[in-house]
Amino acid sequence: MAKRHVKGRKGRPPQYYKTASGRTIIGMSMRADGKFYATHSKQETGKVRYLGTDEVEAERRLKQYYAELNEDKTQITLPQEKTGITHVGYVDWDEIPLPVIENIFAGDTFEVPSEALWAALRKMVVEAGAQETAARLGIPRFASLKDEDVAGIHPSYKLKDLGQDYIANCTKRNVSKNEISNTRLFWNEFCKIVRVAQVGRITETTIKGYADRILDEFYKKDRSRDYVRHRFRKVISILIYAKNNKPNKSEIRAVLEYCASHLKVPRKAPKGKPYAFTKEEFHRLLQFANPTYRAFFLLALNTAFNPVDLIRIPKSSIYLETGILNYPRVKTDQLFARVAILWQETIDALNIYRNDIRKESGCETFFASKYARPYSRGYIAEGFRQIKQEAQLPHIEFRHFRNSSLSAMIGQCEGEVIDVVMGHGIKGEKKKYYDLKPELVKPAMDAIYAKYFC
Questions:
Q1: What pLDDT, on the 0 to 100 scale, is given for residue 333?
Q2: 328-353, pLDDT tens digit by residue?
Q3: Which residue, 326, 330, 270, 297, is CA-closest to 405?
């Protein structure tokens, strides 16, 4: 079929594509972007013949290419009982038009490309179903098949179409633009990783490979569980929607079984031991931080806040003129205030952020994106990951800001004050007075400042 490398021919031997099972497909190669092509088509026709990105479809198109190149024809003789055909018609088969056949009479013979004939027969079998095919061909064994088994002969649903159908339904139900955007992103990512175009080409190995790729991001690049959960659940949701709305469910049902076995969100990685970074490490982080993250870092250390607390602080809770933070938040069904006295360094960083980076916007939170929306935890985590890599401090995690604040306060101020700063509950009516008199927590702020700035 294809030219083989023979002794004496110049150049390297061709790199034919090898399937996952180890079978080499002679005459077919794959580019770096995952697109298949007929290896020798450039030498044979002067133009590269591309075969698509689906492995099975590419092999079929390769056979079609060589059938066309070698003029592989099948002769058909009309049965004698036919009196005559005046027009057979014009058929497009994978962009290759079959010739129009006119005035063919009983006993006449004409030729069609073999691959075109098989494609036409496949379509007829699928449309007729198992029972009708058995009757038409006179092969009783066909009758023992189920219609869905015969339907598997026909190219199955395209992954691209399943995604478009799901998104169209989301649009009809007035799903948010952000959710639709994420749906498109996650599904396109899935299609790119599995590298097949149709549901019927997805195997258990394919799904396992996709799961391994996403989990590799989770373990090696410190992604959150939400990063994994959102992708896995969206893929499963699209497949379930297709199963509920498509007539041929067998292939989709099989893929969903593979998903149930392999698309599992890992348990949350256990936190390591508490770690308080040194003064030098903290200032090295500040050195590589942009104005936005400088404000994040100083406020996190100053107040012992977690990232989720930082992105939720309302503008109304920070009084830069007086240097006081008073952040009431609901915790265990009680209104509990987080209070802090801000250092001058923190005030200066927050002023730069407010006046130069993010001027007044319609967002209620102090920290907001250029779209006037609160930052996400993923945004903070990704930016922090880049900064600590540039600072060559890979062992530092964002939770260590809170650990460092606590370690500086212990032994330097009362335990009750530490509980208020850390956001822990305290008994009795005293908690109300910390809200009214934030200066009560000043000793804790001074202890942290002394460790990291003096």
A1: 47
A2: 766 544 556 788 999 999 999 999 98
A3: 297
Amino acid letter, 163 = G
Amino acid, res. 97: P
Q: Report the CATH architecture of 279-453.
A: Orthogonal Bundle (1.10)
User: Band of the pLDDT at 255, cuts 50, 70, 90?
Assistant: very high
Output 172-176 pairs: Cβ under 8 A, ≥24 positions apart.
none
Name the pairing type of β-strands 334-341 and 17-18: unpaired
- Confidence grade of residue 286 (pLDDT, cut at 50, 70, 90): very high
Going by their DSSP bridges, the two strands 324-331 and 334-341 should be labelled as antiparallel
CATH architecture of the domain covering 17-69: 2-Layer Sandwich (3.30)
Bridge-partner residues for 24, per DSSP?
Answer: 18
What are the sequence ranges of the domains in the chain?
A: 17-69, 73-151, 159-262, 279-453
Residue 158 has pLDDT above 50, yes or no: yes
Angle between helices 415-422 and 442-453 (to 10 degrees): 80
Tell me what the pLDDT averaged over the chain comes to: 80
Q: Is there a shared CATH topology between the 17-69 domain and the 279-453 domain? A: no
Cα 427 to Cα 32, 37, 327, 361, 447, distances in angstroms: 64, 73, 19, 39, 24
CA trace torsion 404, 410, 416, 420 (10° rounding): -10
Whose tokens are 């309302």? That residue is 314
Amino acid type, 382? E
Phi, psi of 289 (to 5 degrees): -85, 140
